[in-house]
Amino acid sequence: MDEPSLKPGDRDFVGALASGLEVLQVFGVEHPRMTLSEVAARTNMDRAKARRFVLTLHALGYVKRVGRQFELSPRVLGPGYAYQASNQYRAVIEQYLEEITAELGESSSLAVLDGNDVVYVVRSPARLRLMAITLSVGTRLPAGYTSMGRVLLGQLREQELDGFLESVELKAFTPYSIMTKESLKKEILKVRSQGFAIVDEELDAGLRSVAVPIYTGSNVLLGALNISTNAARVDMQVLMSVYLPRLQEVVGKVKLIAQ
Amino acid sequence: MDEPSLKPGDRDFVGALASGLEVLQVFGVEHPRMTLSEVAARTNMDRAKARRFVLTLHALGYVKRVGRQFELSPRVLGPGYAYQASNQYRAVIEQYLEEITAELGESSSLAVLDGNDVVYVVRSPARLRLMAITLSVGTRLPAGYTSMGRVLLGQLREQELDGFLESVELKAFTPYSIMTKESLKKEILKVRSQGFAIVDEELDAGLRSVAVPIYTGSNVLLGALNISTNAARVDMQVLMSVYLPRLQEVVGKVKLIAQ
DNA sequence: GCACAATTGTTCGAAATACGAACATTTGTG
DNA sequence: CACAAATGTTCGTATTTCGAACAATTGTGC
């Protein structure tokens, strides 16, 4: 775990950059378009300050203006594109995931750990399912309650895992959600030793998934692979005897890729 | 066209935000990982300044630290995710594009205009082609030399189009590339009147594509749809008689979506 | 079309911040 | 181990960012 050497208020912490990124982050699904006053209200900034940041983001091309409203511009895809393009395994993993989806008819994903969340970085959605998983690249979910998160947490050093457990927020997403830190730690250690995670209706009703860690041939962790299913349709036995081996097959293939 | 009301040096332009975003942008395929000194050199900033920005981005979670090196963190996917999630047509268009790919075996995309570039926002890559188009969501290409760009430029008002033509950089990507502003304008106006664009080996050898504009039922431009092909494999007649109608079909379906 | 509320734009004094130079410390390499 | 390169730290100060207050514009309801 990579601790910041700076915090807000430190002399070398650039407050204006933090404020500007805070303004950028306020645009999203719930508030795709906003006036200056709305941005100021949402960020709790003085109006003149918010105005400066919005207009600067606009001048730099990160937001567009439509009358009095501002919205994100496609330029904000840039850093994410750079992030994805910097990892040469992404494209080949995406193809393997699509093969899984074509074969099993299930959604399959790669995610990485970021703070206490998993972030989806590759997605192959199942198209034939009415009961669909509505997730995209960039989606963040609480690591402790997802199969991929459990797998990734299981790869952490003891100290890092303890750091996670210290700061994790436990939440009863469903009646099955783990509600003590002790049980969560125990589950993560179990996942670590068995080499895969199954999470069953802990984050959302009906959501059942299996995940494994995926490494390069030189043992660099690339993330976690999963297959997400509907608990009403796929029983545990299929998950273990068909889906898990299929994931492990991809893991094996990726390990053989020359660098 | 949405002109900035601020420019660098203006009193209300937040220089520190611009510098911080400049630092963020320096990370990419060519330089995925960098030390502080490397960031300072690439941005041409004083070392102490670059250090402040890198360490602030790190503290905010946008970059990770590995020893002495910094790299983008998955958190940079956030603004792009917000941008994509803010548009409710994206998911359904993605499905239509995948159907096209499944049916015709070609890559198909949706792009929008940003400055003088098109930015790819939805992608359905053809998996069976060895001669593949290697593009991702977030990829930017010069609008004037791409079928989708031509289509989008054709939707601009006269003044906006003239603004584009004034600032466009003409470049001989291939022997077929348009090299005068007059020819380019003529081509864009032709695209506008015929309702589609075909670009043939103007950006890259072998790259042939057809594109159409796509609107909502209430006449809001969503972007341009295309199918990209290999000129060695797909002749003009197929492009016109099979591929173009297929795109127009999707356009018709999207127009019918209730808001 | 008008009145008025809400929003946005502008100015400017000054507090705060960001800057870079110079020195100190640490790390990597041959 | 020596030394070069890189990073960390400090601090005076120039510059930038801040917000309050006033001005102008826009949107809305009648």
TrEMBL record, chains A, B:
InterPro entries linked: GAF-like_dom_sf (IPR029016), HTH_MetabolicPath_Reg (IPR050707), Tscrpt_reg_IclR_C (IPR014757), Tscrpt_reg_IclR_N (IPR005471), WH-like_DNA-bd_sf (IPR036388), WH_DNA-bd_sf (IPR036390)
A family per Pfam: IclR_C
PROSITE patterns: ICLR_ED
Residue ranges of every copy of the IclR-ED domain listed in the record: 75-259
Keywords (A to Z) from UniProt: DNA-binding, Transcription, Transcription regulation
GO molecular function per UniProt: DNA binding; DNA-binding transcription factor activity
GO biological process, one term: negative regulation of DNA-templated transcription
Residue ranges the record marks as coiled coil: none
Protein's name in the database: IclR-ED domain-containing protein
Organism: marine sediment metagenome
